[in-house]
Design goal:
With 315 residues, the protein is α/β, with parallel strands linked by helices. It has two domains: 123 residues, Rossmann fold, CATH 3.40.50.720; 175 residues, Dihydrodipicolinate Reductase, domain 2 (2-Layer Sandwich). Helix content is 32%, strand content 21%. It is built from ten helices and 13 strands.
Length: 315
């Protein structure tokens, strides 16, 4: 008997990618609402409560409303919005974050899918904090660039429907200059930091793909760890993982340019430690697809874990 899954918000950027990953699978039966029924509260309530698992691909308020409509205690929920990423009672859906996180996801009824920027940031920073190389109270800066699909349907429309006279030729633009991006608390809490990181995001003139970077002055850190120390901490943290790998020394030294689209259409994330030991400086870099490991791929991975399946199915 196939597993019944309802994607609430399947017409959105992330929802479409999740549907594409699930609809070819013989073990999954998708519950579909067509046309205006997608917005019909009663139809959604019925679909939400008749599913074995629900994936919410909705704005925050709509996601909260959807959760309120679920009365069947057996329904397992994955929420891809920011509504529950730091909420009590919800498990954070980054399976590789700590040794016990995958087991927590497997037991959970409510899982919050990580954001794309936090996935790269936490993937780089959390192992260093857990290893004692980066103090929890350290002032951390994170720079990042994402494809415009990270902004959802509105930003996709903005970039793809510009008139010729309004077309902007710059390759990227920065935003969130008020330093209040909605991902910052998620980064701080799940990254294991005492203070909010200084987050400097930007969006590029390309559809998807992401680079997240954390620069560090190693000479100022307690014990002045070397780039090798940082790399080995990451290698230890992600050994035997399916979707996260750490570039070795040889590849790192040979890398002169890094393409943010380099892992598109995958659920992979690759981590680099670029360092200058003489100067005591390092650039920690995560490469991922903001719609893959940063969204739809992670949701499918979490779904597989929650259902007791091989987490690589559909990925």
């Amino acid at each position: 008997m196939s597993i019944r899954v309802f994607i609430d918000g399947e017409a959105g950027t992330t929802g479409l990618q999740i549907r594409a990953r699930l609809e070819a699978r013989g073990d999954i039966s998708l519950i579909r609402l067509e046309g205006e029924r997608r917005k019909d509260r009663d139809a959604r309530r019925e679909a939400l409560n008749s599913a074995d698992a629900v994936i919410l691909c909705l704005p925050d308020d709509a996601a909260r409303e959807a959760v309120s409509l679920i009365t069947n205690e057996n329904v397992r929920v994955i929420d891809a919005s920011t509504a529950y990423r730091t909420a009590t009672g919800w498990v954070y859906g980054f399976a590789e974050m700590t040794p016990g996180q995958r087991a927590e996801i497997a037991r959970a009824k409510r899982v919050s899918n990580p954001g794309c920027y936090p996935t790269g940031f936490i993937g780089l920073v959390r192992p260093l904090i857990d290893a004692g190389l980066l103090p929890k109270e350290w002032p951390v800066t994170v720079n990042a660039i994402s494809g415009y699909s990270g902004g959802g349907k509105a930003m996709v429309s903005e970039f793809e429907n510009e008139s010729a006279e309004n077309y902007c030729t710059t390759p990227y633009r920065i935003y969130a200059m008020g330093l209040e991006h909605k991902h910052v608390d998620e980064m701080r809490i799940h990254g294991g930091l005492d203070h909010r990181p200084l987050f400097a995001p930007s969006v590029g003139r390309y559809y998807k793909g992401m680079i997240v970077e954390v620069p560090l002055q190693l000479w100022a850190l307690p014990g002045a760890p070397s780039p090798h120390d940082l790399r080995m901490a990451l290698v230890h943290a992600y050994k035997d993982q399916h979707f996260i790998e750490v570039a070795d020394y040889e590849e790192t030294m040979q890398t002169k340019l890094l393409d943010p689209e380099g892992l598109n259409d995958t659920n992979r994330m690759k981590l680099f430690v670029f360092g200058n030991e003489t100067r005591g400086q390092a650039r920690l870099v995560a490469l991922l697809d903001n719609l893959g490991k940063g969204a739809s791929g992670a949701a499918v991975q979490n779904l597989n874990i929650m259902l007791g399946l091989d987490e690589r199915l559909g990925l």
